[in-house]
Design brief:
The chain is α/β, with parallel strands linked by helices and about 220 residues long. The protein has a single domain, classed as DHBP synthase, CATH 3.90.870. It contains seven helices and ten strands. Helix 1 runs parallel beside helix 5. The longest helix is centred in the first third of the chain and has 16 residues. The relative contact order is 0.23. The model has no long low-confidence stretch (mean pLDDT about 90). One of its GO terms (cellular component) is cytoplasm. It is an enzyme of class 2 (transferase). Pfam families: Sua5_yciO_yrdC.
């Protein structure tokens, strides 16, 4: 049976964060608010839990899961070198709506799907998400919906789609317009825009000093 916690109330928010942290540490799934849409997440280093996340979404490993972090410094332990371009984007847009794809550190024992040696990282701008991430560490997080269905902009929409496959739902209120994060791939010689979302391509290009667009 899933538990839903109203994070608009201080007492239930604290209870919900404790329950969510316990769920993540035991390899279960949680739904949490982010600054884009609601996410479904679990321990990034628990391969069984990540496969459970993909199963809950009815999605295969060919669409790997990104990782949310609670601080800038966490990235240094997850990526195989953090380039100057990556640091420029982190300083400009984190916490916020920009996801960055980097080569992942080969020593990490995780299975996020078919990543081909890369990892997509983001630090969200939402107090509930940040508090949970700082408590449990990096989380594998995807949009809280069944694959092919609209992303959830409320905890109830997530519950309607994912039901009891999720142990804990943290209700942070409506997320607003369900606009996804922008994704920039920094694994090659030139930055590539994989998806334009909440952060415009122009804003990314301005920070990096080069025009950033889709792979030609």
């Amino acid at each position: 049976m899933s538990a839903v916690y109203d994070c608009g109330e201080p007492r239930t928010r604290a209870d919900g964060l404790r329950a969510a942290a316990a769920a993540v540490r035991s390899g279960r799934l949680v739904v949490l608010p982010t600054d884009t849409v609601y996410g479904i997440g679990t321990d990034a280093f628990d391969g069984v839990a990540v496969r459970g996340l993909l199963q809950a979404k009815h999605r295969g490993p060919d669409m790997p899961v990104g990782v949310l972090v609670g601080s800038w410094s966490t990235v240094d332990g997850l990526a195989l070198g953090v380039s100057r371009q990556a640091r420029m984007l982190i300083e400009a847009f984190w916490p916020g709506d920009l996801s960055i794809v980097l080569p992942h550190a080969p020593s990490l024992n995780w299975d996020l799907g078919t990543t081909r040696g890369t990892v997509m990282l983001r630090m969200p701008l939402h107090p509930v998400a940040l508090e949970l991430l700082r408590e449990v560490g990096p989380m594998a997080v995807s949009s809280a919906n069944v694959s092919g269905q609209p992303p959830a902009a409320t905890a109830q929409q997530a519950l309607d789609q994912l039901g009891d496959s999720v142990a804990v739902y943290l209700d942070g209120g409506p997320s607003g317009e369900p606009v996804p994060s922008t994704i920039v791939d920094l694994t090659g010689e030139q930055p590539v825009l994989l998806r334009e979302g909440a952060v415009s391509a122009e804003a990314v290009s301005e920070v990096l000093g080069v025009e950033v667009g889709p792979r030609s």
